[in-house]
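New to this. Comment on this protein:
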Amino acid sequence: MVAGMTDTAAPSRPARPARAPKPKGQWKIDGKLTLNHNEEFKAEDDALNVKQRILDVYSREGFASIPSDDLSGRFRWMGLYTQRKQGISGARTSKLEADELQDEYFMMRVRIDGGALTTDQLRVVAGVSTEFARNTADISDRQNVQYHWIRIEDIPEIWRRFDEVGLTTMEACGDCPRVVLGSPVAGIAADEIIDPTPAIEEIKARYIGSPEFSNLPRKYKSAFTGHPSLDVVHEINDIAFVGVVHPELGAGYDLWVGGGLSTNPQLAQRLGTFVRPEEAVEVWHGVTSVFRDYGYRAQRTRNRLKFLIKDWGVEKFRQVLEDEYLGRALNDGPAPAKATAPGDHIGVFEQKDGRYFVGATTTVGRAGGDVLTKVADLAEAAGSQRIRFTPHQGVIVLDVEEDKVEELIEGLAAVNLHARPSSFRRWTMACTGIEYCKLAFVDTKDSATELVAELEKRFAGDAPLETPLSIHLNGCPNSCARIQTADIGLKGQLLDGDTPGFQVHLGGGLAASHREEGGLGRTVRGLRVKTSDLADYVERVIRKYVESGESGETFAEWAHRVDEEVLV
């Protein structure tokens, strides 16, 4: 040190203790904290209890008698959401509160596990549509039926009719196990690996409406298929069982976990386990329990199982499942083979009993009670009493005698259900959109219907595309119509403040006969299309693909390969 100078160095400060991590709301780690209002109202009163209040109080005293925690919260467990008030533009969607956007009518979702209905059940579904829902009845991409214009006063009678034929709206929405997707050709397809029907029925009987799983961190979507076409979009479910054949143990399931789209898309991952048929329900129970106990409850935007899987990884998840919930190790097993055929089952196919099933597409899910009544009539005239809805918004009539097939196809076509549709009608999907949804910015159903008609006209004389090309329209970023997994995914938004339009995603898709594995679409920066220009854009990008795509190259491969300027 230089003479005359003093040491002015600041004394060292003790290290600041590390902040304790914020609780994520995991019951097994943080305890049953009530971290937000959703968790508060679920803790205060099991959402399943709202059913009796609907029957005894609200249906008698009217809409105004319903408190907000029931109306905007627990009603979801009964398959009920308030619908959008008519006449409110998309420009006001994000500016108004939910109670300002809602009408005094409900969307009601009928839970149809595996998409399976008898013709008697279908007639009841149709009758509710015509008597109580202004003839609305949309077939969703989760094999459900959605009504609109439902009055609170009419719900007891609707439920009574459903009860008589074994149907329910219970847990069709809400933070609970929602409808279980099932192969729509389960038990009848000649090339089926395994029939998942017993597992689906047991889950529904034991756990739907049970307090054991009525308070999950968020919605929970399940899927089962034993068909080699991979027909239940397994990659975008929280849990999925996919039929495989183990070289030593025979037919069973490959287990997938953690799928989900919305604004933070993630495809499900294989756990690497082989699940024997007799273990399937137990394993479903175990995975669901892990989600209930370790799932994140602190932030609503991070509550799906996919976020836990992303943080833990599949190895840790499998270990927790085996050690803490099953008490044993599961067998390792093979991955599913590449899909053998399109998974929508549109067309005519022979069943394993020698009869036939006929699959027909709707136009973006639109049906109506009058149409569904006609389907029941046509099915019975063809000797059938069994109907299935598909995860692709289609309808399948089972058990058709060979000499009745053509008559059935003609009858279905007369009510706009097509067993031999154009590629555009077959592979276009749309969510509810601004017509009824409080989250939407733009119209989807009518826009998609008009788009299909226009593309059919513009490509009428062209050779069909070698592989299917899917077009999905969504009214908001939440991806109910699976926009990230479509060849052309269209996300509704307002352009320049108030002009309806779509952001474009290109090249997505799930595992299929023309694709080894699922993948998310490519977002082209700045590529947004006005609704009024939609047909022009879609035609333009398809023709560019036809002109510049390499031999055997799918649209998705081409869309990910070419420069952005080609896609504009």
The radius of gyration is 25 Å. The chain has two domains: 39-332, 425-567.
